[in-house]
Predict the structure.
Amino acid sequence: MIVLGVILLVIGFLTGLSILWTIGIILVVVGAVLWILGALGHSVGGRKHYW
């Protein structure tokens, strides 16, 4: 999700399309939050891993 956000940010910056820029920022922020929560050991989306 973070990689897709960065790709959309770059495409939006190069083409000047602000909607791609906005979607890219949202994807990067949401991806970073989910990554941090997963790294802290919290279950994300109701999934629990027992290993």
Summary: The two ends are 24 Å apart (CA to CA). Residues 41 and 51 are 12 Å apart (CA to CA). The mean pLDDT is 84. Helices lie at 2-15, 18-39.
